[in-house]
C-alpha cells in the first residue's frame, strides 16, 4: 500500500505548489472564509495551511488519508457546476505518502479536536487535543523519502514563486475568501474576502496594472466571459499574469492562452505576454475536466469555436477601447 501510495502521489504531488493547491481547495470545500498559507524555503521544508472551515470529525481523520476516500461529490459533471473542488480523494493520501504531515482539526460541534501525525503513509500518532474550530495542515520535508523526486525540485525561490502565483489565482477565483500568504515569516499577500474582482486585482497586483485595465464582458454561444485585460507593456515575461477561471475554477489552458496572445499581436512586443483575468461561464458538457488528476489542465470539446470566439472577443476589446492610462 505504501508503494502504491507513493506512485499515486507522483500524479498529484509534483512540487510544493501542488500541496498548497490541494490543501487550499480542501479548505474552500470545507467552506472556510479565511485561509492562511505559510511556507518556508519555497514550501520544500514547511507548508502550513490553516482554515476556519467545518473541520474533520475525529473518527474520520484516519480515513481521510486513505486513497480514494472522499466525502464529496463523485461525478465529474457535478464538479464544475457545484462548488466542490476535490473529487478523487487522492490528495491527502498522496501528500502523506511523500512527506511528514501533522493535522490539527476540530468541527464546530465537537468540544475537543484531533491531532494526527502521519509520515510516509505511516500513522505516528492520533491524539485528542484542544483546538480552535477548523483545520490546520502542516506538511514538512516534501519528498524526504523519495530522493529521486526531490532532485527535480527547483530552487526554494522558484518553488516559492510557483506558490505565490497559485495563491494569486486562488484569491482571484474566490473573492469571498480572505487569503493570507506568508513566506519565510513575511506577509506577502492578504485579501479581505469581501472585495469585487477589480479591487482584488488592484490589491493583488498593484496600481501600475489596475490603472491600465480594460473590462471584458461578452456572451457567445459557447461561453460568457467577464473580467479584465491589461496594458500589454506590463508583463512578467511568462504566462503568470494570465489567469483563466472556468465556472469558478482556476485552470490552465494552452488554447485560451494562445487565443488571447494571438489577439494581442500588434498590441504588444514579441517577448511580452498579456495581462488578463478572465472568468468564463461554460456549459460543463463542453469541458473535459478529467484529463489530469490535478484538474488544472482543461480540454474543450469544441476547441476551434472556443478559440475563435475568445480571440475575437479580446481583439474587439483591444481594438475599440482605449486603455485607461496609468497615473
Ligand atoms: P477530496 O478533496 O477529493 O475529497 P482529499 O484527499 O483532498 O480528497 O481529502 C479527503 C477528505 O478529507 C475530504 O473529502 C474531506 O472530507 C476531508 N478534508 C480534507 N481537508 C479538509 C479540510 N481542510 N477541512 C475539512 N475536511 C477536510
Ligand atoms: Mg481535495
From TrEMBL:
It comes from the Bacteria. Residues 201-319 form the DNA mismatch repair protein S5 domain. This protein is involved in the repair of mismatches in DNA. It is required for dam-dependent methyl-directed DNA mismatch repair. May act as a 'molecular matchmaker', a protein that promotes the formation of a stable complex between two or more DNA-binding proteins in an ATP-dependent manner without itself being part of a final effector complex. Belongs to the DNA mismatch repair MutL/HexB family. This is DNA mismatch repair protein MutL. The gene is mutL. The chain holds residues 9 to 335 of 706 of the full protein.
Amino acid at each position: 500500500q505504501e508503494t502504491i501510495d507513493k506512485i499515486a502521489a507522483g500524479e498529484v504531488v509534483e512540487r510544493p505548489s501542488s500541496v498548497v493547491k490541494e490543501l487550499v481547495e480542501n479548505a474552500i470545500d470545507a467552506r472556510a472564509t479565511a485561509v492562511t498559507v505559510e511556507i518556508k524555503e519555497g514550501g520544500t521544508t514547511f507548508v502550513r495551511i490553516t482554515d476556519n472551515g467545518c473541520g474533520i470529525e475525529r473518527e474520520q481523520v484516519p480515513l481521510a488519508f486513505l486513497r480514494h476516500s472522499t466525502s464529496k461529490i463523485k461525478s465529474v459533471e457535478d464538479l464544475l457546476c457545484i462548488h466542490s473542488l476535490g473529487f478523487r480523494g487522492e490528495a491527502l493520501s498522496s501528500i502523506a505518502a511523500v512527506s511528514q504531515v501533522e493535522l490539527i482539526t476540530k468541527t464546530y460541534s465537537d468540544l475537543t479536536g484531533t491531532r494526527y501525525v502521519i509520515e510516509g503513509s505511516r500513522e505516528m500518532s492520533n491524539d485528542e487535543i484542544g483546538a480552535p474550530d477548523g483545520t490546520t495542515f502542516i506538511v514538512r520535508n516534501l519528498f524526504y523519502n523519495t530522493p529521486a523526486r526531490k532532485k527535480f525540485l527547483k530552487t526554494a525561490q522558484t518553488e516559492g514563486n510557483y506558490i505565490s502565483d497559485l495563491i494569486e489565482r486562488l484569491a482571484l477565483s474566490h473573492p469571498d475568501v480572505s487569503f493570507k500568504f506568508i513566506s519565510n515569516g513575511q506577509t506577502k499577500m492578504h485579501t479581505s474576502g469581501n472585495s469585487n474582482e477589480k479591487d482584488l486585482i488592484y490589491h493583488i497586483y498593484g496600481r501600475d496594472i489596475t490603472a491600465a485595465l480594460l473590462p471584458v464582458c461578452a456572451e457567445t454561444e459557447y461561453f460568457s466571459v467577464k473580467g479584465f485585460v491589461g496594458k500589454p507593456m506590463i508583463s512578467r515575461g511568462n504566462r503568470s499574469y494570465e489567469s483563466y477561471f472556468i465556472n469558478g475554477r482556476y485552470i490552465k489552458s494552452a488554447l485560451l492562452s494562445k487565443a488571447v496572445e494571438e489577439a494581442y499581436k500588434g498590441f504588444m512586443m514579441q517577448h511580452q505576454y498579456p495581462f488578463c483575468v478572465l472568468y468564463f461561464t461554460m456549459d460543463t458538457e463542453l469541458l473535459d475536466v478529467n484529463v489530469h488528476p490535478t484538474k488544472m489542465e482543461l480540454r474543450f470539446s469544441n476547441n476551434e469555436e472556443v478559440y475563435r470566439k475568445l480571440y475575437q472577443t479580446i481583439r474587439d476589446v483591444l481594438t475599440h477601447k482605449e486603455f485607461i492610462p496609468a497615473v
